[in-house]
Amino acid sequence: MSRRAPASHLTYADAGVDIAAGNALIKQIGPLVASTRRAGVLGGIGGFGGLFELPAGFREPVMVSGADGVGTKLRLAIELDRHETIGIDLVAMCVNDILVTGAEPLWFLDYYASGHLDVARATDVIRGIALGCELAGAALLGGETAEMPGLYAGDDYDLAGFAVGIVEKASIIDGSAVTAGDVILGVASSGPHSNGYSLIRRRINGENLQQTLGDGRTLGTALLEPTRIYVRAIRALIEHEKVSLHAMAHITGGGLSENLPRVLPAAHDAQIDLSSWALPEIFHWLRDGDRIACDEMLRTFNCGIGMALVLPRADVDATIELLAEHGERAWPIGTIVSAPADGAAPRVHYAGSLASPDLLA
User: CA-CA distance, 110 to 293, in Å (whole number)?
Assistant: First the structure.
């Protein structure tokens, strides 16, 4: 009886997963991870878990965690083949969220998934993540790189991030100190940050991403401007004896309309004067006259305000000055007002118009 020769053995590479590429990536990113090392890190990358020793000096330490991604901003990065800053966005979206509680970011983990691992592109992405961690003072403690052919097509990839911070229990900023008459400071954003990009991509509708905007940047460059990381400036405020922060809101998806009420106590509303700041050039392009209605802009985009701080009127000047010393622009955009104690959730009331002149030029 004749016997057929055995077929060649299947390998993981035949299925589209390149283990060698994964190992090459780990070698490439080793120095990037090392550059984010801070006190508390134990060991290095390559283990099954990242180790971090909690800092001493806390009486009642509370851990604060957050997870996020960068949404469909990734699609623009892929279309423009520019991946060096999208990792900054990933870190920013996570650390800015935990920052508003008063927490100091300690470490960060990332998750990078693609259908085919391009080592050079992944290294660019992780280089941005490492830079974001440096800006936030957080260690890049570990992460996961997943190659999943059949789930991601072509050059598509996805990102997720996870940040952990720490705050003294008695120092948690939870909005309970907010009172009528407090001032709301707006801290400038760098653009849309990482929110509203499904609407942005709809607005592009085939427009040339290389066109020049009124501020001299190309449209593509303006839309890929990374999310600002406010950690150093806000931590300086928290530690300053002359400033008292009653509440902070990270202005992400939902804009001021949805995010500011999240940190206000019952029977307190926010009154915002839209004429108190300039609408940055990229948002003028987005509106294109009245193509996107004002209320839609305000509940989708940050419209130039990346962080909103609520504090006593007496602390406003010192806060603006200290933020400026750390490279952040801020100005009063409104006040806290009393609202009926009828059980309704806090709301944002607007006066003025987004079509204001460029006050910040």
Answer: 36
Q: Where are the alpha helices (DSSP H) in 100-155?
A: 119-136
Task: Provide the token pair at 297.
Answer: 């802009």
Sole residue written with tokens 């009420």:
261
Task: Tell whether domain 183-351 is in CATH 3.90.650.10.
Answer: yes
pLDDT tens for 266-304 read 999 999 999 999 899 999 999 887 788 899 999 999 999
Bridge partners, residue 249, by sequence: 308
DSSP conformational letter for 346: P
Which token pair is 263?
A: 């940190």
Place of tokens 């900054």: 88
Amino acid letter at 56? A
86 and 73 in contact (C-beta within 8 Å)? yes
SS3 for 240?
coil
Q: What is the CATH number of domain 19-45+58-169?
A: 3.30.1330.10
Contact in structure between 281 and 328 (CB atoms under 8 Å):
no
- Residue 181 burial by Cβ neighbours in a 10 Å radius (0-12, 13-18, 19+): exposed
Residue scoring higher pLDDT (11 or 99):
99
pTM above 0.70, yes or no: yes
Residue 75 burial (C-beta neighbours within 10 Å; 0-12, 13-18, 19+): middle
Cα 53 to Cα 34: distance, rounded to the nearest angstrom? 17
The answer to whether the CB of 243 falls within 8 A of the CB of 155 is no
